[in-house]
What we know:
alpha+beta; four-stranded mixed beta sheet; 7% strand; Mitoferrin-1; ion transport
Amino acid sequence: MDFEExxxxxxxxxxxHMTAGAVAGIMEHxxxxxxxxxxxxxxxxxPSPEASYRTIREGLMKMIHSEGIMRPMGGVNAVIIGAGxxxxxxxxxxxxxxxxxxxxxxxxxxxxNAGAGCGATVLHDAVMVPADVIKQRMQMYNxxxxxxxxxxxxxxxxxxxxPFYRSFTTQMAMNIPFHAIHIVTYEKFQNxxxxxxxxxxxxxxxxxxxxGGVAAALTTPLDMxxxxxxxxxxxxxxxxxxxxxxxxxxxxxxxxxxxxxxxFFKGMHARILYQMPGTAISWSIYELFKHQLSKVxxxxxxxxxxxxxxGRDSVVRETRSELETSGTTNMINVKEKxxxxxxATNKTVERLRSLHMPxxxxxxxxxxxxxxxx
Length: 374
């Protein structure tokens, strides 16, 4: 399969991208959720001694030992509900923008890929931001919420819809550069590792992991701000004598007052280790769906040969015609499919109508001997 076939076939069906994206997003978040739980706690501004971790391994062991084996998965329901539609919108928008504006110019395509990542992020975050709020509230140590529904109910009763989108501008400010870097890095690695742009699981995994790691490292300070806005830690608010943290500037100020400059990079290792395998899983699953669905599309479009049902019925026959090229006397043999229909082949008419063969000509001997073009 060449580049044009592989890259263009799936863009014709938004449903393909939405289905593949939804599955990829849910798998990514579910598989990596325990590490994400540790990362959230490591970004705490004033962690409890029982929830102070130096490494991901230590964090997971402490959580399981003191809070139960399922505690690292607390809040995963919110992610499952949010990640499906969020990633469905993300990948469908990404493919749509890329296919519409891409060209043969390499530099131009870098800007197109970055723009596709930014445009896709807007749709993604509109769905994912409330899910992240619920998820991170559930992940915190001594969370006052018994379930995701309990968290939604209590937050809404206390402040209405505001807490669900309090970090929206900050998350947009983080995710737009994150996904721009992510998409450009992924496509760059694909150009090096997968020049022919064929389905290559190894190339997709390496490119996806590298893209996620680079983007995660560069956007960690903004991710820290998002966590502060989503969690609204009581201990930090009491220490600073304020009721809540509001906006990106408020988050930046709070982090600096509590932990100084190093505070902006808390949990960076956990974030990278979360994003690298997560994005590798997401891209490999997405590309797998893209490959399999394009194979189905190709099989449906293949013209019948002599071994097909139509060939066995002696309906499709190959003939040769000679065409004279303009300006030369060279004769070129051109194969064409000629279909001869007889009363005995009525059952094959419907098959012929379902074919997508622009050059197909047919004669109906049983009808009026006129040629029909499909």
